[in-house]
Recover the amino acids of this structure.
């Protein structure tokens, strides 16, 4: 057994099921080792698709998978979605190929500082020194990625480590279930006292607290105390819809967020921090809260939210309280022009039960969450890191993790062009994904931010022709149907709310991927 074979066998022993790969010459022995029935290799045509798909896999499975990236440039191509994964507390193991040690001394063209590239966005970095010890390196990488919150682990794999004899592979037990810290009892008692006082309070949930037992228990706390339940504008994954505890979404823009939170006297944070504006704007605050509001951490990022809410309910004497539950709201299929409101109503009408919705719709979809609270139960995934082009890859990984569920990927046309190669992988794997491209032929978000920033204020006008040319993408106009079909994905275009609703419903009857171009 060579080092690459030892590495793959150990990864599978540690519970890794999938490898999202974009291999090169240095990784050919790893590629040969992937001819193994215990692991599924998935080819991605761009490294940012590999890393984004690994993020999506983790968000639905709560367990890390592995990417295979080619040397420093391959890692660099994947860093944007590694950034997004890190901000979402997603665990992943990135195996990055490297030249053999003997070859590096000659400074070959693809030599780079892979360790230096990896460290800023990785929690754990190791260079495999020998084939004999690579099994231990692999196990350590998976263990690091499996911690709570999830971590980014990067294992650098020199070519000679891959092809040399590894000897007898050690038997390494699989990683234990990630341990989660117990919240401090004094902190629980303090928050209970705050809630008993009855002043306006909002509990802001994030990460693992926005689903499962923790979310239901938070619904009990809200029912018992009158506290509101909220989430940041972007959340890694929320279980929402009819039958689930509803969360209010803090608005994205500064002025609406401040208005939304103006009466809140106490912000209680769960696996997150106080709300912060996504960007800094002239003459506007960075913190989104009433200046007199107090912030009370309830659960830190590495702690157990479900346990914290159980302790809080005991402290409140409210363990038997029935939780807040969202009722089903039947939304009438919209008609007429496509706009943010009719699009939101169309989604509320068409989302099938148990769907996964990956949202990167930016300007077009900002009203979506408020109008889909009472839709059929579904999971919503947002972009935590803000690096665009996350949603097609994340949808790919989510659909591979949950092939029995329909995944809806909502993306603006500007964002989609960053990682449109994901469509090819979706077609190759026959994944049940409906990609909805909102085609306004511009970076509409940047037009809004141009005004928000006060750019061009000295001239008293909007962007001039040269500035405007940097945020319009209609010359030439992208042919989304041709783009999709070229990668094996059937596509339709819609221009009315009726057609959009019907196209989504039709897509749920398909077994594989579909693209819907929403012409705005």
């Amino acid at each position: 057994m060579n080092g690459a074979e030892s590495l793959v066998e150990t990864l599978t022993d540690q519970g890794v099921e999938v490898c999202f790969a974009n291999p090169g010459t240095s990784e050919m022995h790893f590629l040969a080792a992937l001819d193994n029935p215990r692991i599924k290799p998935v080819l991605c045509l761009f490294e940012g698709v590999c890393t984004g798909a690994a993020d999506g896999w983790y968000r639905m499975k709560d367990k890390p998978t592995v990417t295979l990236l080619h040397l420093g440039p391959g890692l660099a191509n994947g860093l944007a979605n590694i950034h997004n994964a890190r901000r979402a507390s997603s665990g992943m193991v990135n195996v990055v190929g490297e030249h053999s040690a003997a070859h590096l001394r000659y400074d070959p063209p693809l030599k780079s500082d892979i360790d230096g590239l990896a460290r800023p966005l990785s929690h754990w970095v190791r260079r495999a020194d020998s084939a004999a010890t690579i099994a231990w390196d692999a196990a350590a990488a998976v263990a690091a990625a499996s911690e709570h919150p999830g971590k980014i682990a990067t294992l650098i794999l020199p070519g000679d480590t891959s092809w040399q004899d590894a000897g007898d592979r050690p038997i390494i037990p699989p990683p234990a279930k990630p341990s989660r810290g117990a919240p401090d009892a004094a902190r629980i008692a303090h928050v209970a006292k705050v809630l008993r006082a009855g002043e306006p309070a909002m509990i802001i949930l994030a990460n693992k607290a926005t689903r499962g037992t923790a979310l239901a228990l938070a619904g009990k706390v809200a029912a018992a105390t009158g506290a509101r339940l909220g989430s940041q504008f972007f959340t890694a994954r929320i279980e929402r819809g009819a039958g689930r505890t509803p969360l209010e979404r803090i608005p994205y823009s500064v002025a609406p967020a401040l208005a939304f939170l103006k009466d809140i006297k106490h912000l209680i944070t769960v696996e997150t921090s106080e709300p912060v504006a996504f960007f800094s704007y002239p003459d506007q605050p960075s913190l989104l809260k009433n200046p007199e509001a107090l912030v009370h951490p309830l659960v830190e990022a590495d702690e157990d939210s479900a346990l914290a809410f159980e302790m809080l309910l005991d402290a409140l004497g409210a363990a038997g309280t029935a939780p807040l539950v969202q009722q089903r709201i039947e939304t009438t299929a919209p008609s007429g022009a496509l706009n943010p409101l009719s699009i939101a109503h169309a989604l509320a009408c068409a989302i099938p039960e148990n769907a996964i919705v990956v949202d990167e719709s930016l300007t077009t979809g900002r009203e979506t969450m408020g109008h889909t609270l009472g839709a059929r139960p579904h999971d919503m995934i947002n972009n935590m890191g803000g690096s665009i082009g996350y949603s097609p890859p994340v949808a790919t990984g989510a659909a591979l993790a949950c092939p029995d569920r329909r995944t809806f990927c909502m993306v603006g046309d500007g964002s989609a062009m960053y990682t449109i190669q994901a469509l090819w992988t979706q077609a190759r794997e026959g994944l049940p994904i409906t990609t909805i491209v909102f085609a306004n032929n511009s970076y509409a978000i940047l037009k809004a931010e141009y005004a928000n920033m006060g750019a061009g204020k000295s001239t008293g006008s909007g962007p001039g022709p040269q500035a405007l040319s940097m945020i319009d993408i209609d010359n030439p106009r992208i042919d989304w149907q041709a783009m999709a079909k070229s990668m094996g994905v059937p596509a339709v275009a819609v221009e009315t709310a009726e057609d959009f609703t019907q196209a989504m419903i039709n897509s749920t009857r398909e077994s594989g991927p579909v693209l819907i171009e929403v012409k705005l």
Notes: The longest helix spans residues 71-87. Residues 340-441+477-519 form a domain with the Rossmann fold fold (CATH 3.40.50.970). The longest strand covers residues 92-98.
